[in-house]
Amino acid sequence: MRIRLVVGLALAAVGLSPLACSSAAPPFQEVSEYCTAYAKAICGISSTCGFDTGSCQSYQDAQCNSAAQAAQASGTRQYKPGNVQACINAVSAAYSSSATTVTAAQITNYTNLCNQVFVGSAGEGATCSSNFDCTVSGDICSAAPGLGMTCAKPTPKMLNDVCADPGDQCPSSAYCGSVMTSTGSTNECIPAQTEGQACSTAQPCDGNDHCVNGFCAALGAQSAPCNSSADCISSLLCDTFTSADAPIAQCEPAYQFGGRGSVDCAGIDGTASMGTASSSSSGSSSGSSSGSSSGGDSGSGDAPSGG
User: Fold this and answer.
1) What gap in Å lies between CA 224 and CA 269, rounded to an integer?
2) Which of these, 60, 120, 204, 292, could form a disulfide with 67 (CB 3.0-4.6 Å)?
3) Residue 203 falls within a domain, yes or no?
4) In a domain, 79, yes or no
């Protein structure tokens, strides 16, 4: 007791308080803090949708933590608290209490920022599973013929160029395929399949089309059925939240929040089903975007995705 008293008097004598040397810890030091903030931000849409905020936050918090675990599962990506605030700000802006829509561009923006909450440590040439595993800014996770996925600098190629190294990128009208030359087999950027032509994993469609039942078809315009945003033209997202009134997933320019009956409202609070181009599936949605992967489809890819 005397020692404490003497210390207290000594601090007082120099004009300090016993707490003067302490400082508040930086925010978001734990993943759980990040997910709590993320859930609060995305559930800001509750006033527009009319659902219970507490239930929404519980659902989104669980989705965020699940996606965070997936992001770190390989050991290549680590949590970076300093990148959290940009993610939270973008989600808050998109799902503010006055919002009635969240556009594909907004989803892309906050998903990219939230993906950066978990930073990759794979250097060039190291094994990866997504671009976010790579530690060098601008690197992509890329495969080359006969090789696995590794981090590499992107190298744009033209039609008929050789594409033998990680990072080689053919134009959207072509893909890297095997061709025979006078000296033997090599890999070059060759024309991709176009609308109406047969397609497969080995013979993909060009950038304006996608493979549907073995044939290339034009990417979906608004209201077209879809399985993921890759099935839609670039300005649209695949809204995979479904209900009895909206039984299939469709290409849309935005999530629409039209009150309690809105399927997208139900998607955010976890009461919608997740659908495909042909039907909806049972079970709740996974509308989270906590920083593991993904756009407007689900929160299980490279970043918990807002919806």
Assistant:
1) 25
2) 292
3) no
4) yes
